[in-house]
Amino acid sequence: VMLKDRAAAFEAIDGVEEGGFRDAVLRGLALPHKMIPSRFFYDERGSALFEDITRLEAYYPTRSEMAIFEGHGADIAAHLPETRALVEFGSGSSLKIRAMLKAMPQLTHYAPIDISGEMLTREAQALSADFPDLEVVPIHADFMSPVELPKELREIGKLAFFPGSTIGNLEPYEALEFLARVRDTVGTGGHLLIGVDRKKDTETLVRAYDDPEGVTAAFNLNLLARANRELEADFDLSGFAHEARYNADRGRIEMHLKSLKEQAVSIGACRFDFTEGETIHTENSYKYAPDEFRLLARAARFEPVATWTDANERFAVYLLQS
Ligand code: AVI
């Protein structure tokens, strides 16, 4: 990368909406190790591709976690006799939520928190129809920042729900901050039910992120297609390949987009050079052994109450108490 190009990228950021896609791509590609944050995967096309991933044979997490909620719902509920409100961090896991709502007749309130107002409305309407006795309280907010709960939720027993191993997409220090914020939200005596993918053999892990059907490859490459659509970038999609690696030292799957040749890419007035084999790092997905995750929970001052795993012991669901 030429330094003057990087400087041009930083100049071009002036006036660009902070925290938006353009800002993130210009900054990320100007770094010595190019990267684009994984939260930008989820435009309309990317969200549809992620849905497809969750149904793949190779992608075991969704299926394994669902089996835990379905098989152990009553046992989970038995630990939570005082809980009245289920607070979901990030709506959109409708099947998992339904399994928990069915298992917990003691609930009076369901409060999904989501940054997308559209997602919230859709989810709230569907659930109100199927659970007419449940008060649905949608909260339009970014759950990565502190969330203030509406009055009706303040005095009742709360269970935060964060399935899908989404915590794995955070750096461990961010995961710790996130857990501490959830703890503030549920208050003393409140609980968190969280799904976390486990460490396992490299082959199973890599296959889950490099499936034979190529859906995860399409999901990863969609970032470049999105940059072409939204930022007038000129990425040649056939010049990049999807790569999933397990970094055992860090305990994480890494996804990269690897340049197959020496090439230059323009984004508006900026130019980024790629050497052959150079990658754009697009995602980390951390895997936690049960002891490691319970330690992280304790560091956030949560007390682990119980742990459930699927029959193949690939995935874990933890119940933590504040
Ligand atoms: C959303 N998140 C938990 C997924 C994961 O497994 O880290 C995203 C994903 N990336 C590739 N496949 C799935």
TrEMBL record:
It comes from the Bacteria. The keyword Transferase applies. Residues 21-321 form the Histidine-specific methyltransferase SAM-dependent domain. GO terms for molecular function: L-histidine N(alpha)-methyltransferase activity. It holds the Pfam family Methyltransf_33. InterPro entries: EgtD, EgtD_Methyltrsf_superfamily, MeTrfase_dom, MeTrfase_EgtD-like, SAM-dependent_MTases_sf. It is an enzyme of class 2 (transferase). Keywords: Methyltransferase, Transferase. This is L-histidine N(Alpha)-methyltransferase. The keyword Lipid metabolism does not apply. One of its GO terms (biological process) is methylation. Its EC number is 2.1.1.44.
